[in-house]
Amino acid sequence: MTRSVFAHVDGVLHAERVSAVSLAERFGTPLYVYSRAALTAAWQAYAGACAGRRASVHVAVKANSNLAVLNVFARMNAGFDIVSGGELARVLAAGGKAENTVFSGIGKSAAEMRDALVAGVKCFNVESIPELDRLNEVAGAIGKRAPVSLRVNPDVDAKTHPYISTGLKSNKFGVAFDDARATYRAAAAMPHLEVVGIDCHIGSQITEVSPYLDAVDRLLELVEQIEADGVKIRHIDVGGGLGITYDDETPPEIDVFVRTVLDRIDARGHGHRDVYFEPGRSLVGNAGILLTRVEFLKPGIEKNFLIVDAAMNDLARPAMYNAYHSIEPVVARSAPKQVYDVVGPVCESGDWLGRERELAAEPGDLLAIRSAGAYGFVMSSNYNTRPRAAEVMVDGDTVHLIRAREEVTQLFAGESRLPD
Ligand code: LLP
């Protein structure tokens, strides 16, 4: 649904009502382009399905942490899910509220815990006994009680890429299911902690509901045991992870996914509890594209290469996860298509953006790499001393520059030569 905001009008790809050609001319390439309408529609799908239920949505900041993107969500009263002190600072700078923010992550530092406690975050999602100990100590030192939930590893198979599957026993994440009950007892006995919930996150780019239902069943089983031990659980956080269409995947619609999960919790007799969701990709993934310009065509003996000005440093997902992103010309050419590997200028064979794509393109042409709104810019780097791309947000026929393109001198501004 959200893909339709990027559509061809008179043969030219548009973002809402703005031509991608004009965006590239005005801001240069590579360029991340987001659609406010698409962000809003995805949010409303979640919010609509939660309306009238005891459910709330926390935007996973890691998927796209640009202040303007976060601000679009904050204006709609979103909650946030953060994994670092840096992300907390972004949420606050973007107009989000600490009291609607949950703090996830496996290795929180004492300083991050302190800052989050002072800011007043809603809940710490804790993943181990040493982390509980540290949080208890930090909270005690500043005279506060930290609200905690334990991230439990439900040991379900999310049927996704191994690098982004997180709910199996073999993953580094969460408290093992069999240890959870005892860990809750330990948490409840710590004077500066207040147990408020339970959570899990089983992976990312999950395109079926069934792994969630398995995880929910496992969590509810535990909740009953934990409460039998006298520890009250107010909320159940089912994590993020709903997949999107990159190619031919058919994930459930957001509202169907939310309702199915909530209905299962109700049906199991737990409808009186608050339910949290922590989506990232399904809110922002198809709300963004990456525009890139063709530098050269390089015919080869075994393969033809199309060398573009975006690279693995701009969009790491293909190199890192073998991920597929659809690539299409901004202005369609009628010339015959050829099969190309679309690659960037970085000096690595792993620097590719698309393999074996049928395209008709000439140097100077613009291409759009789809589904780049999630884990795109946020995972970009300065490898090969490449300034990171600019980001813009389109809103109807208005365009906002939401991150200026980096200058080379900024890249080494913090460095220095040795003294003479
Ligand atoms: N909550 C927690 C605790 C998480 O670890 C994550 C993502 C989310 C929520 C959001 O999940 P989402 O709805 O976006 O799937 N870089 C990888 C994805 C890594 C996901 C890490 N955790 C990629 O580009 O595919």
UniProtKB/TrEMBL annotation:
The active site is at 347 (proton donor). The keyword ATP-binding does not apply. Residues 32-373 form the Orn/DAP/Arg decarboxylase 2 C-terminal domain. It is an enzyme of class 4 (lyase). The modification N6-(pyridoxal phosphate)lysine is found at residue 62. Homodimer. This is Diaminopimelate decarboxylase.
